[in-house]
Design brief:
Low-confidence stretches: none
Number of helices: 6
Strand content: under 5%
Number of domains: 1
Shape: elongated
Strand order of the largest sheet: 1-2
Mean pLDDT: 81
Structural class: mainly alpha
Helix content: 40-55%
Number of strands: 2
Amino acid sequence: MSQLNKLLNEYAKMYAGDENKRRLFLWTRVDEGIRWENQWHGLPAHHSSGADPVPVTAECLDRIWESLIGLEMGRYYTEPEYYLESYLKMKINKFRFLHDDTPLTMDTTTTTMLQISLFSTF
């Protein structure tokens, strides 16, 4: 099984898990999803009693992933499969280790990075 398939399976399990369900419940219009800058955006749901904190989402810039997952920026911008593997690794690790309220969704980015990796002539 390729690395990409393993990551897709891991992501799908996390997506279906209880923690992701909890996070999804905190937001409305989850379909807003990922915008051009590779970051998920949502609108907080207003079903809390007032005692619950407002959900937050935080994002890391791509450079932080160089040391955390061994991201190679040159490959990230020029190799489509490497880009998708790295993208999944970033989302999985962010979900595990950055304890904010960002849910996993089944959309992906169509950012410039993906376009460059698909159509690059480097």
